[in-house]
Each structure stands twice: as C-alpha cells, then as structure tokens.
Write a structure and sequence with these properties.
alpha/beta; TIM Barrel; 15 strands
Amino acid sequence: MIKQVKINNFIISNNLPITLIAGPCQLENRDHAIFIAEKIKKICEKLKINFIYKTSFDKANRTSHLSKRGLGLDKSLKIFDEIRNTLKIPILTDIHTSEHCEVIKNSVDIIQIPAFLCRQTDLLQSAARTNLVINIKKGQFLAPWDVPNILRKVETLNQNILLTERGVSFGYNTLVSDMRSISIMKKSNYPVIFDATHSVQQPGGKGDQSGGQREFIYDLSKAAVSIGIAGLFLEVHDDPGNAPSDGPNMLKLSELENFLIKIQKIDKLVKIEKL
C-alpha cells in the first residue's frame, strides 16, 4: 500500500499532487529568510501547491573550513519559529549530530538526514524518536537497493518517512541522476522526493567550493516528475551568484513560478493516467 505522510494540514504521497520543498541553501539572516519564504508561499498559493520551507542552520560539510556555514542553531530557531507561527509554513532543516534532535524538535516539522550521514544509525534513530517526519537523503555513494537497510533502522521507531534522491557520484566532482533509483525507492511505498538542485551540483568542482550546472535543473525535474513522485526539492535564491553556498546549482527565485507551472502540468498528466 502506498504510504501517506501528513505535514500540518496536507498529505504527501507518491500518488498525490506534488509537494514543493524549497528555500535557500543556508539561513543567511532573518529578513532574507522571511522574504524568500513569503515569495515562495505566494507562488505556491497561486498554483495550489503544498509548500515546505527548507534551509540549513549550519552547513557542516562545506568544502573549505573558511566558507560561511549559516546563522547557527540558536539564532535560527527563533527564525524557524517566526516562519512557522506567522507565515504558517512547515519547516525542514538538516541535522548533523544526535544532540540536535531534542534541541530543534519543537521548532521544525521535518528533520532531514544529510546524504553523507544517511547510514549513521545513532543519528537516524535519534531523529526517529522525535516522532517528527524524517526526510532521509540517499547518499551519493549508495545504491537505491540498499535503502531498505536504512529504512529498517528507522521504521520500527517512526514511519513518518520521506526518501530523497539527490544524484550519485560519477567519478570525481560530478553527480549523475539515475532515474531507475526513483522507481526502485518507490517500491518501499514511502513518499519519494527528487532533489533537483543538488543533483546538478559539482562537489568540490571549483577547488575550495562546489560548482554546479543550473541549466539542467528543469530537464532533470521533468524526468523525475514523469515517473510519479511525491515532491520536488529545490534550493531557491533571489541572487544565486552572491549566495554564500551552492549558488551555481540554485534556481533563481524569479524563474520559480514558470518552472512550477510546467512541472505541475507533467505531474497532473502522470497522476491522472495512473488513477
């Protein structure tokens, strides 16, 4: 049976209209976070797309130790609370240690397990024990048929699980998207998300920082949505060229509405055919 995961007042499932998980790579400051959240919310309300705001309080895996990492936990929690309570938008953020789980559980709706950490048993189970929704990103190094091993670590404690495909390592500094992975992960019946923007990332591709190929975000999104997925994960920024992280692979905010209009047409067509 296809599983459904409830977020606030809506449901995410592979056979329901697509949900958008979107926001900037890292939380830069309060005003910017509110600005992006409001803009995306307005677009999603117009298109009748369910929206979850994503951002990171700490980018702990930056290529260089000199790179900006985000606002940090204490300052970010206050902003998360404001977005949730004032704008009524659910929040997704990633964690890096088990200790983060208890600290953030009352300020977010979804805890994300970073791809690099997707096999860390203690981290997975600590997140599961919060009873929040858990978004597990499949590691760049992991075969899709190995995902059930991860699920078994979590689902005895918590079955509110999302699975995210974000590309797989292909040699050095390059990721490719194997669309078979989506179909394989869907066999778990858990909602599958496609992370289109990290899938075009070039890890460490610019020496002391990652590069990216933004021009392929739409094509990969079309391919993923045509399979029938629960959600699309997009890092979005008003000025990617000056973003503190992941600028080369973030979608421009000004392009988001037209992007979603096209994607929504594919999603509706695929899911109508499968009814």
